[in-house]
């Protein structure tokens, strides 16, 4: 796959992950600030979700580059890396889920590179990959305390398909963290393109 260039950010490109993936992951800061927990609503815009504000803290998911080593060069999965001026700054891991949708297993952007279109460019590549495989859409999961991600998915045409209040209770029975499942469906878009 040829690198995809973003015209809004000419120094931004996305290409298939290479042997530098592990070093990039270990050297990146994927943390983000949590300042509120949202009460997710499937039929409401993220901006209208009620918020429970908390004392801010930093959250970081433990990303292990070996977890997705088998996804590279596989027929039903791929790992793509984003580069800003030839420096690796983000990645997306996408696979074919059991239900036929593409599944974004992981999307992460190095903290200093945020607000440069990196996550959107990675989502665009995942969408291109999914359409090329003729999948009906893409699904992914985030949490109600990652409001930046929720706003991004909404802007990119994803809709809330499910909310799971119990998913993280096995880790912490008192958590306020809720799983939100987002979907980007292609069927309507394909019908419009075909003139149906």
TrEMBL record:
Gene3D superfamilies associated with the record: 3.40.630.30
Which GO molecular function annotations are given, in alphabetical order?
acyltransferase activity, transferring groups other than amino-acyl groups
Domain named N-acetyltransferase is located at: 35-187
* Pfam families from the UniProt entry: Acetyltransf_1
Is Transferase there in the keyword field?
Answer: yes
| Keywords of this entry | Acyltransferase, Transferase
How is this protein named in the record? Acetyltransferase, GNAT family
- Give the originating organism: Pseudomonas chlororaphis
Q: What is the lineage of its organism?
A: Bacteria, Pseudomonadati, Pseudomonadota, Gammaproteobacteria, Pseudomonadales
């Amino acid at each position: 796959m040829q690198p995809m260039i973003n015209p809004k950010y000419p120094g931004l490109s996305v290409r298939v992950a290479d042997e530098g993936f592990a070093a990039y992951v270990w050297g990146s800061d994927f943390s983000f600030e949590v300042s509120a927990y949202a009460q997710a609503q499937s039929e409401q815009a993220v901006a209208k979700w009620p918020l429970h504000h908390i004392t801010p803290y930093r959250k970081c998911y433990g990303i292990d580059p070996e977890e997705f080593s088998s996804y590279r060069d596989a027929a039903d999965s791929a790992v793509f890396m984003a580069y800003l001026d030839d420096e690796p700054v983000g990645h997306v891991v996408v696979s074919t889920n059991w239900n036929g949708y593409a599944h974004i297993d992981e999307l992460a952007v190095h903290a200093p590179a945020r607000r440069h279109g990196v996550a959107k460019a990675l989502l665009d590549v995942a969408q291109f990959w999914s359409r090329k495989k003729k999948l009906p859409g893409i699904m992914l999961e985030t949490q109600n305390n990652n409001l930046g991600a929720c706003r991004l998915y909404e802007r990119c045409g994803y809709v809330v398909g499910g909310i799971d209040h119990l998913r993280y209770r096995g880790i912490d029975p008192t958590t306020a963290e809720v799983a939100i499942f987002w979907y980007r469906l292609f069927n309507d878009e394909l019908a419009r393109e075909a003139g149906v």
